Input
Amino acid sequence: MRTFIGIDLGSTTTKAVLMDENRVVLGRGITNSRSNYDVAARVSKQEAKISARFTLFNQALGTKGGADRLLADLERNFRLEQFLSELTLLEKTCEAYLDQPRFKEGKAALKEALVAIFKKIEGEAPQIYAPDADRKSDFFRDIAGSRFMNIAEAVSKEAGTSFEALLNIYDKSILDIESQVSPDEIVSRQLLNGLSRALREVSGVEVSEADAQTALKKVLDTELEETYVVGTGYGRVRLPFPKEHIRSEILCHGMGAHMMFPGTRTVLDIGGQDTKGIQIDENGIVANFQMNDRCAAGCGRYLGYIADEMKIGLHELGPIAMKATKATRINSTCTVFAGAELRDRLALGEKQADILAGLHRSIMLRAMSILSRSGGVSDQFTFTGGVAKNESAVNELRKLIKDNYGDVTINISDESIYTGALGGASFAHRAV
Amino acid sequence: MSKQDVIKSNSQIVQKEMITRNYDKITSGKVKVSSTFVPGNLNELLMCFDIANNLPEINAIQNAMRKKSGDMIMEAERGGHSEDVCTYVKADIGMMAKGNIAPNGKPFPDPDVLLLSYTGCFTFMKWFELLREQYKCPTVMLHVPYDANAGPTKNMRDYVVKQLKEEVIPTLEKISGIKFDIDRLREYLRKSAKAEDDLVWMLEQSKRKPSPIDCYFGGIYYMGPIFTAFRGTDEAIEYYKLLRVEIEERIKLGLCAQSLDGDMPEEKYRLVVEGPPNWTNFREFWQMFSEAGAVVVASSYTKVGGVYDYDGFRHDADHPLETLADYCLGVYSNRNLPTRVDMLAKNIVDYEADGLLINSIKSCNSFSAGQLVIMREVEKLTGKPGAFIETDLVDPRYFSAANVKNRLESYFQMIDQKRRAGGSATLAV
Amino acid sequence: MSTKSVKELVTYCQEIFDDLNFSEARRWKAAKAGRKVIGFMPVYVPREIIHAAGMLPLGILGGGADMEVIHGDAYYQSYICRIPRSTIEMALSGKLDFVDGMMFPSICDVIRNLSGIWQLLFKDKYVRYFDAPQNFKDNIGGVFYANELRELREGLEKLGGRKISDADMRNSISVFNENRSWVNKVYDYRAASPWKAPSAEVYLLMRAGMVLPVEEHTQLIKDYLAAAEAENRPVRDNCRVALTGAFCEQPPLNLIKSLEMAGCYIVDDDFMLVNRWIKGDVETSGDPIENLSKAFLHQSVETAAKYEDDINVKGAYLLESVAKRGADGVIFAAPSFCDPALLDQPMMVSRLVARKIPYITMQYAENSGQMQPIREQAGTFADSIKLWGAA
Output
């Protein structure tokens, strides 16, 4: 089938969205950004295709008779298969590094340590991918990295091997792994294996094993033709796409917001490092835009910095701020000074919640400036980016918009991280 | 004339020679030297006293293009200057602190006089006060009132003329030892007007589709002689004649505008640009336009040293001092905001542009304060989209290529998408 | 004879200061039909002419520390000072709807261009860019300026629908002469005994003068001086500083309080220079326009936005002020991005250094919130003066 793909190379994550020729989204993929942009793009695209196959499989099975549970379990097991595959690859790569002259001396001990570490991680894997397991990240790099670090420390202490050497080997190996894309055949095999596991684990499903496997094989055999691919991304000297296949991330963002909420006229995107205010017309085309891309104040990083300063989790900022009885006036908009002002306020006896509420208001005031310069806020208003998940930020924004622009419908989507890629896919569709 | 001949008799080479010659003259030690500003540059008057014309703004630009201004600015900041202020000033002060070496490698002499043409920019006053502290030389203030109501009054004009008569000319006489001869001034003014006619002809050629020239990046080179030490000279007349011949040839051959990398193969976007260019990354900045097929058909910066097209001003030899006053009052940065809006909107319509691009300069309040309003007003008047990028004059720390490219590309794609939707954007032939 | 206490008077002034709707000015306008209000921005306009027209000059000094700017940010990039954006915010939110005209003095390019923005946004209001001369000779700058004043007079006559007679103007000159002399008395009083007139109070008193009719302000000053004298306030071991650079965008009141809290009596400043612009009196007999012109040319204070023709005279005003007010040092407090203050500073600093007068520099925005660094810097300065002060 013909498909149209948009790929958004962000600073932290790379996203891909795949849609069919009726502009219906079939799949979304995300991976961590990495130094090899080409690989990041391909991995995210592959993830989107995987996601599309799940969608098609879901369509084939329907939702009745426990099919949705089967699907959920399939996904979980597939991820487990993926993880184990990568883990094996990582182990092989690590061991290959042992042949380097500098590891000659402790080679045997290091090899033993590595075997122990990987065995342990392999043992943990089912738990990591157990139903309802709580993972801080879904990226292999993050999961494997944190487990390796943890276990290696313990192992090296016990065995008396060099922790540093183990880290060194890991760092090199993970880079190698990150620059590889699994071939499609392997992915297909992982899906089939995952299905087998799922069928064994899940009970009370009316779909027969044979039907399920036939359906999956059919989905896997369906060719997802990459009819047109559009790439976008900011700050990349060279995107890994030919020139005609690149669209500015501002346009992609505007179009993506339009695709999610066709009534959108104003888009606010607060990313990790920049803030964009975009005005779009009824067709999703950008009419005006302003950016703050020189200063982290008011961006996601700012919140990350605050969370570090207060020694709380990033995801805790919003909920704590919501408990405020008043918003402390915070005037330092500079990230660098915010920490000092924070400490000042705490020392003066101000409540943590009140200070956080003030900080959130401060961020949204910056956003209001950008919006103001870009042309104001028109109905409907769509808010995208990681900060949109922060309830306190959204709360402050609602108040500010109400006070200054009246009653405006505010849209926030759970999938807003894919906005750019969605816009890109739409442009891909338009291009043909 | 064949295409090869066009390249050989490059007006750019001539223009470069003229500027080099002027630096040699300034550093020769054989003439009196005055420092003054591009807006309000009374070159014809200075020539009456055989005084060489040194322009610190041009010096800052030269340093920036040679990638030296960054260090100079930091030197000035180390010496106590704020990060927030005009980078031309800081580059100049830094240059002085680092030996005051001219682009030709020779040291600048101390100026014999600072001719403070106070028009279009408050910072000029402080700049020359700062230089006066260094050089302790004679400084003469020529206060040119701001044209706040789109039409200088008789009071303003008389005031400028009086200052010329009673302050500027006596000072220049004293410095040079030469008596003022008003007929000599008239002669120079006649020559200015001649060159100005060809200049305006040149500016108007970018109304054509495709435009044979770029009137922002390319325009910098074309404005060189008329903005600097050559207005009122035979050389300027010759230069603009030569330029005219070259452009006529380009038109005959149907060529698109020429960038530093050669002729653009295709003209895809026609833009009007407001604001000075960035000098530290001039070439890179230009390439972002030329590589996208974008030509600037009109710009406000090419009017900063004098406006000749909007109200048809020419230096008038029959009213020598009054015409100098009119010239000073009429420079772009001395015009009020509604006039600037009108000029830009007219440009968009007359030159059939796709829209207005504003290059907002961080350290220049004269241009920058109000540009957001200008953009909105011009959009309203013309129905064409505007775009806003932010850089600086000569501080390399404030030029972010990725930043600028991102906004430019978004703008070009905006225009593309509007065209596809049958919007109001024009298509180049 | 008023028997109000300092507290009552200061509270009154504080209310005026906090009131961004300018209720006092609105009340004045509503009290009589046909009254007009003319807003003016820093640094100097001849209020006498506005007064002679029967109109109220209203000093516009930005929206202050507590006003959030939302719409104003659409007009200015982030690297431009705050006063123009908060002023536009005030205008757009209706706070200046009763103001019939605005005057923009030639202080810098930002305010200059703001006059153009005003022309575009408020086509029904009287807008005047007020270009003061940078040539101070009677027959050159004086002629230009006198004509400017005549134009202003004509403009206000047209706006008000009535003629402004020479007698009206002479009278107004006299009234402002009186106000100015009382303002100077306050400054003298504070310099003589700064513990009796804390700078935050003096500041609020002067801010009130930007809103109230000048006659009321003169009376308010008289009342304050009497009340302050009656108070028993302890002397503190503070050093004495002259503050300069804050002639346009105003610092938060907290900054002024913080400086004194940190140990620095402010014995001179350039906040609201308009009320002390003319040194001495303006001549009251003869042609009032010529008199105002001559006073401006020959009796003006020195400030960054004004050209000083003689390099030997440059900086004299600051040095005289340091001497006259017995200041131990100077605090340069400039708004961020302020071209006049920041470009002038090195020239002023070099003159202080040559005379071994201690100084510090700081920057602020009208809504700066962080006072801790200010207190630290000022406190250290005060300590260093006391420890190593000149004999």
User: Anything to note?
Assistant: Chain C touches chain A through 13 residues (CB under 8 Å). The beta strands of chain C are 37-40, 56-59, 101-105, 126-130, 239-244, 264-268, 329-335, 359-364.
